[in-house]
Amino acid sequence: MRLFVGIPLEPTVLSELSAAVARLRSGSDALRWMPPESWHITLQFLGNATAEQYDGLLARLGEVHAARVPIHLGELGSFDRAGIFFADVALNPELVALAARVASATSHCGFVPETRPFHPHITLARAKGQSRGQPLHALQRRIQRRAAFTPFLASEFLLYESHLSSAGSAYEVRHHFRICSK
What we know:
CATH superfamily: Cyclic phosphodiesterase
Helix content: 25-40%
Strand order of the largest sheet: 3-1-9-10
CATH class: Alpha Beta
Radius of gyration: 17 Å
Shape: globular
Structural class: alpha+beta
CATH architecture: Alpha-Beta Complex
Distance between the termini: 31 Å
Number of domains: 1
CATH topology: Cyclic Phosphodiesterase, Chain: A
Oligomer: single chain
């Protein structure tokens, strides 16, 4: 199974993001838009896991304790080389600490944290084809005003399984973990 750990979005934010995406979508886009039910903030991508690793993850992630995490969405932007259009998520000490605790917990199960700096975001669309940057630049030109999103306090993180298909990835929630103070 292919796994990752992420923070789900509050219904208000899902609604606000859906409205922002609806204003930007174009039938001629060379983009694959992600459905709102797949939107999340990734804390750590784990990749393929064995049944033993999965059992270990449940135990170790269940031991993660942290303060509730304030989530503030920022600008809409893109990672041109990766072909991703996203909503940025502001870094704050609580979010960084939770990501570090998750990475520490998963390392005991044989997973290696990424070496790239943590850049939390919500993937809204992926560009198709070789010239990924062109549709993203066209999309950026359609953004007329800065979107405002309601901040929220994350009270849980989830273990997701990613199912790959020709239509894109579908995510299944495998387990909920409550965030609670020590």
